Predict the structure of Dihydropyrimidinase.
Amino acid sequence: MLDLIVKGGTVVTASETFKADIGVEGEKISYIAAAGKLDYLVNKNADKGNITKVVDAQGRYVMPGLIEPHMHVMAPFNNTIDILDFYTASICAAFGGVTTFMDFSTTTKEVPVLQAVEERKAEMADSVLDYSVHAKFINAGDSREDLQGTVKKLVEDGIPTFKMFTIYPGVMINDADILKIMKAAKEEGALCGFHAESNAIADFMKQNLLDEGKQDWEFFNKAKPNACEAEAVNRILTFSELLDVPVYFYHLSTKEAVEMVRQAKKRGVKVLAETCGHYLMLTDEKNKGEDGINYLMSPPLRSEEDRIAMWEGLKDGTLSLVTSDNEVFSRKIKEQNLKEDALTNGKIPDFSVPVNGIPGLEERFGLLMIGVNHGIISLNKLVEVSSTNPAKVFGCYPEKGTLEVGSDADIIVVDPERTVPLVRGNLHYPADLDYDFYEGFTSRGWPVCTIRRGEILIEDGRFKGKRKSGRFLKCSLKPRKEA
Ligand code: URP
Ligand code: ZN
Ligand code: ZN
């Protein structure tokens, strides 16, 4: 029985734009038909006394729900924690057109990766959106057999995507262990992803700056120059080429790294990479002055030249995804950390103390739409980098990330004329968020209806989702149906 019909809209996928009505039965898309062609089914339902929910999409775009594969929620950082949980994150995300999100296990020395993944899954069960987890590795364990077993189990459990940090004592993994995990990942069909920044460069630069008395947080970016990212990206690409193992880069921010990925792809290296909304829209000018502390994230904001290189990378396919790297801290929390350090250590607070992390989960569609509004990318490209490619890269395509018969009915309806300044009054972050990260940016075009597996989450400006209605998504990188 047809439960829902999205009627009269212009369907936009990563590759096509066409007028169609979309019919939904239960959780799945069951029909995609020329306008009006499904009316007989609606009428048949009515004759039997059943109501088909009609979502009017006249004059609107109908797109696959966005997938956010890179965010941090309930993620401890420097003895503090961000202000979202998976329910409040679901609300923000759904208003921003997201229907699936993915987070990371909080693996530590005390909590090994398999346990950390289970703990994160349990926390994410509070979600309204469908969800999956990336496994964070901080070492390769004690034996080759154990590692192989762990990787195999993760893949079997639907968690074939990993993250490793080449920076930050505590979570940082050494190069020898990276190679071991890459080898095991290749054998078991998993994908290794990297937070690629050089710990040695960042440490060295930091110490030099502190020695020179440059300890204000405005020097945060100077401790992580472009070379800090480029060196780590180069190293991982070398490993990937050596072992012929696919790799993924989270949050690329520099023109050098994008160029390395571009050249590596040309040589046949199996590399995929993302950038984030903030590297497309903002530069390190934002770090100057009184409010600069609000704009601290890792990797840091870069120059205008780097910003342009991100758009170029997206346009020529060097970069496949745009993610948010959302980890929301209030300014109060950021400043509190500075003050606490001064109190407990009696030191003048240095730039490494403020927590880094920024909002973006709800704004991502709007940021990309600004790119569309300026004629930089097409609507199809928007869908590709925010929905279809995340599904393909992280192993849930074509269940997610497309509008096809048989796919999950994860659908957004976008009003192309709705203008939304990206400020707190229009967004749904908790009241603790005390600054506007994207002040001055206005999207023309905004999701007005968000449907997750056939269930309407956002309609008429209201959130209708139910806590814990999201479902764990078992991902797989084994070849499935191609588009
Ligand atoms: O500053 C950032 N990006 N915080 C989130 C953690 C990460 O490294 O992705
Ligand atoms: Zn990272
Ligand atoms: Zn991140």
